[in-house]
Design a protein that fits this description.
It is a single chain. The protein contains 13 helices and 16 strands. It has about 475 residues and is an alpha/beta fold. The strands form four sheets. It has an eight-stranded mixed sheet with strand order 6-5-7-1-8-9-2-10, with helices on both faces. A hairpin with a 4-residue loop joins strand 14 and strand 15. Helix 7 runs parallel beside helix 9 and helix 8 crosses helix 9. The termini are far apart.
């Protein structure tokens, strides 16, 4: 009998421990998604900047996993933002340019009748998580609304796409100014709660609002989506940050713009403040953080060698608005507390569309009818558990049937393993690069390896057909 009593006691102890753990696990994790505008691949200390200082973001990378092959879904912003919200490629949603895009009335091609809004037929990340009991808030740049009649336009604002709180999300892609009241040339930052005074800095103000929202949410599960306006133009640093970096400028360094460095410093302090607030609220260990960019950096060389843009993307070729790696490769960091091994690095190619399925799997709503059943992204949850894991995917796609001041003409691109092919519509030309040997895309191998180029182009064409990607059209008004 003593032996039986001991066994019974052990069983009861096991049962008690079993009933406690599921209750603790039932509380879903929070999500803090930080999307930085125009963030270049080497703009952070942890990604190799030789001038910019980003200690808080570097710490985030040290605590989580840093992806060395992270990509935005497009070379410009609005398509990437739609991809973030839906898990779908821009070629599928037909949100393929920044809203409303550039006008090229005499160009050889004209863009298709593309979609200048995030359509309600898609279930957004906020709607999917909201249906699962999450509080949801948007703070910052939205840029997924058409510039139409105000009543029509408002129907596509964040609060009509699943966010119960919207701070500063509107039709504009950049602030008029980073200083209060943040207006210039009809551009404005709205809606904002009343308050503020001359000298207030936009990144700081939006961080204040985000922290107030975290206070309001308390211990309820939440999605806080913070798409920063920074580091988009206008390039305006706080005076104290500008002075700090002016003293450090070195003409021999790759990065040497003190105003841009100051904007990154303000971004970095924002990330540090948000993480400190999570700690103060006791929810840091329950909050998954994602930080990435919406396209590549605005490369200072420009498309034709002009010097004047704020950053430098080398060793990558070109930057925002281009067809090359500099236009789409961007820092990408994930932290899943208690799961992600610290200071991890993954060389797996990942892209914006992966955020949607990753967060939904972590939240435990995968396969639920509340979200888009068809998504182009894949969940990275396995890599977040084990960064040495490999994705069951080797191909990524881009589609941009537009012209851009960054040098782009209408094109599509495919990355398949180490190979990248860009197809240009104007002259039906393809360029082929091996990124493992030539990350700067300096040697076009299409003529040397025609079979490889043809195979990748066929794969790209099949994808374009499968997703219904719109093609540019001949322009009858060309000159």
């Amino acid at each position: 009998m003593p032996r039986l009593s001991a066994v019974l006691a052990a069983v009861l102890l096991l049962a008690c421990s079993y009933t406690v753990e599921p209750d603790a696990a039932e509380r879903p994790p929070n999500f803090l998604v930080l999307l930085v505008d125009d963030l270049g691949w080497t703009d952070l200390g942890c990604y190799g900047s030789d001038f910019y200082l980003t200690p808080n973001i570097d710490q985030l990378a040290d605590d989580g996993v840093r992806f060395t092959h992270g990509y935005a879904a497009c070379t410009v912003c609005s398509p990437t933002r739609a991809a973030m919200m839906t898990g779908l490629y821009p070629g599928r949603t037909n949100v393929t340019d920044w809203i409303p895009g550039h006008s090229r009335p005499r160009a050889p091609l004209r863009p298709p009748e593309w979609t200048m809004r995030l359509e309600h037929r898609y279930t957004t990340l906020a709607e999917a998580l909201g249906a699962a009991g999450y509080r949801t808030a948007h703070v910052g740049k939205w840029h997924l609304m058409p510039r139409l009649d105000p009543e029509v336009m408002a129907d596509y604002a964040p609060q009509h796409h699943g966010f119960e709180i919207n701070i500063a999300g509107n039709e504009w892609g950049a602030p008029g100014s980073y200083y209060h009241p943040y207006e210039r040339n009809d551009r404005e930052v709205y809606p904002l709660p009343e308050g503020g005074s001359e000298g207030d800095y936009l990144t700081d103000r939006l961080t204040d609002e985000a922290i107030a929202i975290l206070d309001e949410f308390g211990d309820e599960p939440f999605l806080l989506y913070f798409p920063y306006y920074t580091v988009h133009t206008p390039i305006e640093a706080k005076p104290e940050d500008l002075a700090r970096f002016e003293d450090r400028v070195d003409a021999s360094k790759r990065h040497r713009n003190p105003s841009y460095a100051g904007m990154l410093a303000a971004l970095d302090r924002s990330v540090g403040r948000l993480r400190a607030k999570l700690q103060d609220l006791g929810v840091a260990d329950e909050t998954v953080i994602v930080l990435t960019g919406d396209n590549g950096g605005l490369d200072r060389k420009g498309p034709d060698g002009r010097m004047g843009n704020p950053t430098e993307n080398s060793p990558l070729r070109a930057g925002k608005g281009s067809a090359y790696e500099g236009g789409v490769r961007t820092p990408t960091i994930y932290l899943w507390p208690g799961v992600t091994p610290a200071a991890s690095v993954s060389d797996q190619p990942v892209i914006t569309v992966d955020v949607y399925p990753t967060l939904l799997e972590i939240a435990g709503v995968e396969g639920d009818s509340a979200h888009n059943e068809l998504v182009d992204g894949v969940s990275l949850a396995g890599i977040l558990r084990d960064p040495s894991d490999r994705l069951d995917r080797q191909t990524l796609y881009w589609h941009y049937p537009h012209y851009h001041n960054g040098g782009s003409t209408p094109h599509s691109a495919i990355r398949d393993g180490d190979w990248r092919l860009v197809h240009f519509y104007e002259d039906d030309r393809a360029e082929l690069y091996n990124l493992a040997e030539d990350v700067g895309e300096s040697r076009d191998l299409a003529a040397e390896m025609p079979d490889k180029a043809a195979a990748l182009l066929a794969k790209l064409n099949a994808w374009r057909i499968a997703v219904g990607a719109q093609e540019p059209l001949p322009n009858p008004d060309r000159r």
